[in-house]
Design goal:
It is a single chain. A hairpin with a 6-residue loop joins strand 1 and strand 2. This protein is about 75% helix and about 0% strand. It is an all-alpha fold and about 325 residues long. It is globular and about 70 Å long.
Length: about 325
């Protein structure tokens, strides 16, 4: 049988409708692309604006203070006369508190993600995941006072088993509570990475005789490694940039030590405390805020570059 053909008038009408539909579709796609480009441009422009706002005062600061003294000095007291500008106490305090937070958030967050992704029933997931994400909605100032008024006196000082108990302001309390604060970020991103692993890998592993735990540890976690690394680095960046918890719980004293029982000051805490002071704009003491901010920006940038490298290295592509 010969295929039926539409009359000429109907063919012309159908072609006109198709052309109009394609034209509208192209206009819609163009509008969506323009909107997405605008969103990306806003992000780039904001980043450039932050760099420019930090760069000018930071350059003026380093004209007065040598970069070598800034990076290697052991004393940080910019408000004294004469001031000392060694950032090592702030840098060490930031890294110590961040390390404690990561030791708390990464194992707990990864464990929660594995349970929610591989073991939890649908009912348990509906209950536990909103409760976990509720932690992300608590203001950080509340976490800070929780660390100062509950964790330190009622947990650390009361049950400390290793000799001298922690001070009322200490890095350990700030790091523990900060780890709890970034736990939802780590758990949520890790669960997304685990859920992205194809079901065929799970089914293949189980079909070969592996149990669920072996499948999780030897198949799913290696397949999701790039996403887990990205989640960990994002959690580290979140911990480095935290301000209120360390300002309240860790104290405001620059202290070059690795003893987490003592009080410390981080770079963000210094910026917050000094920014609320009465410093003359344009003075070298005022420019220390921008110098420390630029240091924090460079540190975060290096972490993001490392994260991108690790994601590309361990990325798995499935079709």
């Amino acid at each position: 049988m010969k295929p039926t053909r539409l009359p000429v008038t109907q063919r012309n009408f159908a072609s006109d409708v198709l052309a109009i539909t394609q034209r509208r579709s192209r206009h819609g796609e163009t509008a969506i692309k323009g909107f997405l480009l605008a969103c990306a441009t806003v992000s780039v422009v904001t980043t450039v604006g932050i760099i420019l706002s930090l760069l000018g005062p930071a350059v003026q600061f380093f004209r007065e203070v040598s970069l070598w003294e800034y990076l290697t000095g052991k004393d940080w007291a910019p408000l004294l006369d004469p001031g000392t500008y060694g950032i090592r106490p702030l840098l060490v305090g930031t890294l110590v508190i961040t390390a404690i937070a990561i030791l708390v958030s990464v194992p707990l967050g990864l464990g929660a993600a594995i349970y929610l992704s591989e073991y939890a029933s649908l009912r348990s997931r509906r209950i536990l995941k909103p409760m976990l994400e509720l932690l992300a909605g608590i203001p950080t100032v509340v976490y800070g006072f929780f660390a100062l008024t509950f964790v330190t006196p009622n947990l650390l000082q009361r049950f400390w088993p290793f000799g001298t108990e922690p001070d009322i302001y200490n890095a350990l309390s700030a790091g523990l509570v900060m780890g709890i604060m970034i736990l939802p970020t780590m758990a949520s991103l890790s669960e997304d990475a685990l859920a992205a692993v194809p079901v065929a890998l799970r089914a293949g592993s189980l079909a070969l005789g592996a149990n669920r735990f072996q499948t999780t540890m030897k198949v799913i976690l290696p397949a999701a490694l790039s996403g887990l690394v990205a989640a960990s680095v994002l959690a580290i960046s979140r911990a480095i940039g935290e301000t209120m918890i360390v300002t309240i719980a860790a104290g405001g004293q620059p202290n070059l030590t690795l003893d987490a029982r003592q009080g410390m000051q981080t770079m963000t805490s210094f910026i917050a405390n000094t920014g609320m002071g009465d410093l003359a704009q344009g003075s070298n003491e005022y420019r220390t805020i921008f110098a420390v901010g630029m240091t924090l920006f460079v540190l975060t940038l290096l972490l993001n570059l490392f994260s991108s490298h690790m994601v590309r290295r361990f990325r798995e592509v499935y079709e």
